[in-house]
Amino acid sequence: MQNFRSKIIAYAKGSGASFKAFQEQKADAWITWIHWPLNHADKVDYVEIEPERRIYRDLTLAKTRGAEPQTQDFLDFVNSEQGKAFFTRRRLDSIIKENK
C-alpha cells in the first residue's frame, strides 16, 4: 500500500477536477466513480476490481411538495423494470433500492 500511495500524483476536490488532473498530468491510473470511465471510454479504459474493494455512493431522490408532475414520472421510471434495466446497462444498478 505504501508503494501505491507514493505514486499518487494529484488529489482534487471532486471527480471533475480529478479527471482534469488525470488528463493534464498524463497519469497512468485514476481511481474514480464508475460513471467517469464509462462516459469517457474514448479517453480511459475501465478496469474491473474485486467487489470487496469497490465503493458505492448512494443516490437519494426526494420529491418536494408542489413538484412538477414529471417528477413523479421520473421516480416511477427509476423504480420500474425499464428503469432498473437502464441503470443496469450503465452499471449503476447497485445504487437503486426500491422505496415504495
List keywords for this structure.
about 100 residues; single chain; about 0% strand; 5 helices; mainly alpha
Please sum up the structure shown.
The chain is mainly α and 100 residues long. 38% of the residues lie in helices and 0% in strands. The N and C termini lie far apart (42 Å).
Description:
This protein is mainly α and 100 residues long. Helices cover 38% and strands 0% of the residues. It starts with a helix and ends in an 11-residue tail after the last helix. The model has no long low-confidence stretch (mean pLDDT 83).
Number of helices: 5
| SSE ordering | HHHHH
Strand content: under 5%
Rounded to the nearest angstrom, the distance between the terminal CA atoms is 42 Å
Residue share in helix: 25-40%
Largest sheet: none
Given as residue ranges, the uncertain stretches (5+ residues, pLDDT < 50) are: none
Strand tally, please?
0
CA radius of gyration is: 17 Å
- Structural category is mainly alpha
Shape: elongated
Q: What is the strand and helix layout of this fold?
A:
Elements: H1 2-5, H2 15-24, H3 35-39, H4 69-78, H5 81-89
